[in-house]
Amino acid sequence: MARIKSKNVRRIESVEKVDSKNAVDTQKSAKPKSKKVTSFGSGEGETQASGKNYQRRKKIPEIQNVEKTVLQSIIGQDNQVRQIITAIYRAINFKSIKSNVLIIGNSGTGKTETIKQVAKRLHIPYTIEDATKYTQEGYYGADVNDMIYNLLENAEMDMERAQNGIIIIDEIDKKTGHEEHDVSGTEVLKSLLKIIEGTRIKIPSPEDPFAEEIVDFDTKNIIIIFLGAFSGLEKIRDKRLNTNPLGFVGNNQEKKEKERFLKQDLVEYGMPEEFVGRIDTIIEMNKLTKQDLALILRKSKLSIFRRYQAELREKGITLSYSGKLFDCIAEESLALDTGARELSNTVNYIFENIMYDILANPGKYSKCTLELDIVHDNSKYELS
């Protein structure tokens, strides 16, 4: 549900400039504090110092170390992880570059999680926005300025950190005009141009959002990452390839290059040309295979199966199962075509009765054996 904006809160409007001397005096009187905050995207509390002091103390880790760490969690997207990390590092290291990235991929392929993992390791604040809740200016619903304020809130109202943060806009394909039910979608994309182009946006002062003071928020260093499935885009690409007058492709590398989505495909899909022109990186996620899904369960640091296994280990219980179990779970998820998302539902189903029995009988069991059929019938286990 979109937030209702009051007259004085988070509303962009023209006001007279405040006395600059008073503003400087106010800043001087404020003392920097070390705060207990939630690490962005991690769900774990940790002590951080905000603002410039924090940035000075934190050295940006080497790019190859971040890649290695992220790949321990994200499976089946090695090249894509490298592309995403490279785009973010370029934006950090070369401030003259305005980084606007588009990531195309089906649900459950790791688009959002990859960015969250990178941002966590670089200590960059971010906000994840659902494009479908945004409307063109003048209509009820959230507008683009809400994205800025959400990012600012996630940066603990620290302007400097927020102005170097990441805005992730999901479901952007639903605003392209390709979706007939959203006639104002392309207008929303056009309204995003002001942050894509790196302009200054006027927002209520983070010092006191209930006051009348308006400050400039500089978006030139913000990394904008758009996400979407873009169902049907491959048909536009295939049509372009089939009508290409160049004929046959010389080698596999050239063929691979020609099969990439181009900006002209996005324009034909319904994205405004002026919007597409400002996207400098297009990344296409792989569709996860059965082997990928099984490997996520077996190896990924984010594996929910490994999480349950660790919980049982804490209770002194050894988990026994067939090596084929991961393939069975992967098959179940693959049939629903939701990528890695369905893995959690299936694994939760498997363990729900097991965890109840263990919690209801503390200290009673030392071994849990899973039968292969437990994927379809979660009573197929034995505790001893």
Fraction in beta strands: 5-15%
Mass-distribution shape: globular
Class of the largest domain in CATH? Alpha Beta
If you consult CATH, what is the topology of the largest domain?
Rossmann fold
Helical fraction: 40-55%
Q: At CATH's second level, what is the architecture of the largest domain?
A: 3-Layer(aba) Sandwich
Cα gyration radius (Å) = 24 Å
Number of domains: 2
What is the residue-mean pLDDT, rounded to a whole number?
80
* Order of secondary-structure elements: HEEHHHEHEHHEHHEEEHHHHEHHEHHEE
* CATH homologous superfamily placement of the largest domain: P-loop containing nucleotide triphosphate hydrolases
SS-based class: alpha/beta
The strands making up the biggest β-sheet line up spatially as: 4-5-8-3-9
Total helical segments? 17
Q: Main beta sheet, described?
A: 5 strands, parallel
Low-pLDDT parts are: 1-57
Q: What are the key terms here?
A:
384 residues; alpha/beta; Rossmann fold; Helicase, Ruva Protein, domain 3; five-stranded parallel beta sheet; three-stranded mixed beta sheet; 17 helices; disordered N terminus
Give an overview in words.
By secondary structure, the chain is an alpha/beta fold. The protein has two domains: 59-284, 3-Layer(aba) Sandwich (Rossmann fold); 290-383, Helicase, Ruva Protein, domain 3 (Orthogonal Bundle). It contains 17 helices and twelve strands. The strands form four sheets. The protein has a five-stranded parallel β-sheet with strand order 4-5-8-3-9, sandwiched between helices. It is globular, with a radius of gyration of 24 Å. The chain starts with 19 loop residues before the first helix and ends with a strand. The model is unreliable at 1-57 (pLDDT under 50).
